[in-house]
Amino acid sequence: MKSRTHSAAGPLTGADGRLPDGSAGDDPLARADALLHDGRYEEAAEHYRSARERDPQDWRAVTGYNRAIRRIVPRWHFEMMHDHERALQYEAAIKQVVTADHLVLDVGTGSGMLALMAARVGAERVVACEGQRVVAETAMRIVDGAGYAGQVDVVPKMSTDLVVPGDLPRRADVLITETVDCGLLGEGILVSLSHAREHLLTDQAIIVPGRARVLAQLVESRALHQKNTVGELYGFDLSGFNELASLEYFDTRLRRHEHRVLSAPFEVFRFDFHRDGPEPRHATLPVVPTTAGTGHAVVFWFELELVPGIVVTNAPDHPTTHWKQAVQCLPQPVAVDPRDPLVVDVRHDGLRICFTGITKEHEA
Ligand SMILES: C[S@@+](CC[C@H](N)C(=O)[O-])C[C@H]1O[C@@H](n2cnc3c(N)ncnc32)[C@H](O)[C@@H]1O
């Protein structure tokens, strides 16, 4: 999500890997470099991988492969797999709902972990889809290695491209998915579940997670404010750069930044994954500050109810969650006081939650 990298100068070749004079030159990695430059990371990774297999000492192939694969498979995949709380809660929920006559659909299988859990508790069959081809191929090898290839089919497709019958023999009885980012909606869960309910699931299908709610808190933090704002520095007025500031949230651990909370947690949106679609929503929420201060940012997180009684959360008081929290900086600091209730304006467009305004109730 966040990275500070220097990209090397662009390649001297075109997208087809040819030099400006139209020749291919004698550089077998020119094509891979061109694909990487064009953002065709899966193909670039494939070319670099072949070159690396031909010569494991070819440092350009090794570094090229590293750059391409990190773009396809961000590092959070590893952190996520090591999030024991997340894994144990999902396993407990899967044990509770999956039975021997169930066809289970795992949307966004990644390593295949949740599909394997469903197979281990005895699901008749599991179809595990994964939209990133290189990840899907890896999951196939993992499933095979675990001895579940006869029970789990990995399909290298986005769930929205699956067909029944075909990719699934019939509509599935259970859908499991962990396709949520720190702000809940960023991986497109509302779109994929709405499609799955219409095309891939039985009418009575159980969806894990079943529900979620998003909570937020207003915070004072100069450190967070500085992540989206600049003023006079080193004798220069750099505030013109604020035109490039954004209302996009980012993931971070709140406790790593000096801050004061200015409100109690307040509920932003609730989602019922058996019913809700990606249609945009808008809410105006009354919030009473608990202390006087300057609001610089909103921190928000989710409570994901897998099944009733089993919840995973990335709340700030959960120090080990791999998701961290979502933080959105406010465009302007807001002076707040407990005697002056606020109205918080928030929207989502099906993919991103955005706090679009904080006003005093008496001015609203
Ligand atoms: C957050 S990871 C979770 C992986 C795995 N389910 C787990 O819990 O360890 C989500 C994965 O789902 C994939 N993905 C997201 N939405 C998808 C969709 N609608 N269909 C197929 N794959 C999807 C992403 O490429 C990513 O590999």
Automatic annotation (TrEMBL):
InterPro entries noted in UniProt: Arg_MeTrfase, PRMT_dom, SAM-dependent_MTases_sf, TPR-like_helical_dom_sf
Sequence segments annotated as region (Disordered): 1-30
Entry-linked Gene3D superfamilies: Hnrnp arginine n-methyltransferase1, Vaccinia Virus protein VP39
Claim: Nucleus is one of the keywords in the record: no
PROSITE patterns registered for this protein in UniProt: SAM_MT_PRMT (PS51678)
Protein arginine N-methyltransferase domain sequence ranges: 211-342
Cellular compartments per GO CC: ribosome
Biological process per Gene Ontology, one example term: methylation
CDD domains: AdoMet_MTases (cd02440)
GO MF annotation, one: histone methyltransferase activity
Entry keywords, A to Z: Methyltransferase, Ribonucleoprotein, Ribosomal protein, S-adenosyl-L-methionine, Transferase
SUPFAM superfamilies: S-adenosyl-L-methionine-dependent methyltransferases, TPR-like
Name of the protein in its database record: 50S ribosomal protein L11 methyltransferase
Organism the protein comes from: Dactylosporangium aurantiacum
